[in-house]
Amino acid sequence: MDNKHEAHEPRIVAFLCRWCSYAGADLAGVSRLTYPPNVVPMRVNCSGRVDADMVLSALEKGADGVLIGGCHPGDCHYVSGNYKTRRRIALLKQALSEVGLDPRRVHLEWISASEGIKFQETMTSYTELIRELGPSPVRATKEAVHG
């Protein structure tokens, strides 16, 4: 890691399904499992409600990474929301790559309500990945323009 990124603490927005991933985050908290404070959890009714505009808005407003957490395939409270999410995020990652933004800045993970440890491990590993990638070029560009 170069000196420019050593002091960088990433900002991560996590859109979490209220039925599974957010409940997994809650279990992690109740179980006193720690994860990096860089992650800002945002509860959504279903991962299927997270669209490209929400993800791009988070990146534009300063997030270095965006994680979408949903129910495991086949367990969606809304039947097919997570299947829509999987397709939507795959297309978004492809579009990000085409415009030169590392698609790893957006991550999709299936985390159930009983997987507090998986939530903790996912947040920790994703924070480390984003720390290695350094500040988002979207944020850097915006800060250069707006001072």
Which labels suit this protein?
single chain; 147 residues; alpha/beta; Rossmann fold; four-stranded parallel β-sheet; 6 helices; globular
Poorly predicted runs: none
CATH topology: Rossmann fold
Number of domains: 1
The CATH class is identified as: Alpha Beta
CATH arch. level architecture? 3-Layer(aba) Sandwich
Indicate the radius of gyration in whole angstroms: 15 Å
The helix fraction, in percent, is: 40-55%
The backbone outline, from C-alpha atoms, is: globular
Number of helices: 6
Q: Give the strand order of the largest sheet, numbering strands 1, 2, ... along the chain.
A: 2-1-3-4
Largest pleated sheet = 4 strands, parallel
How many E-type strands? 4
Query: Residue-averaged pLDDT, rounded?
Result: 92
Q: Which structural class best describes the helix and strand composition?
A: alpha/beta
Strand content: 15-25%
Distance between the termini: 25 Å
Order of helices and strands: HEHEHEHEHH
In short:
The protein has 147 residues and is α/β, with parallel strands linked by helices. 47% of the residues lie in helices and 16% in strands.
Topology:
Blueprint: H1 3-6, E1 12-17, H2 21-30, E2 39-44, H3 52-60, E3 65-70, H4 81-98, E4 106-110, H5 116-133, H6 137-146
Parallel strand pairs: 1-2, 1-3, 3-4
Description:
This protein has 147 residues and is of the alpha/beta class. It has a single domain, classed as Rossmann fold, CATH 3.40.50. Helix content is 47%, strand content 16%. The chain is built from 6 helices and 4 strands. It has a 4-stranded parallel beta sheet, with helices on both faces. Strand 3, helix 4 and strand 4 form a beta-alpha-beta unit. Helix 2 packs across helix 5. The longest helix is centred in the middle third of the chain and has 18 residues.
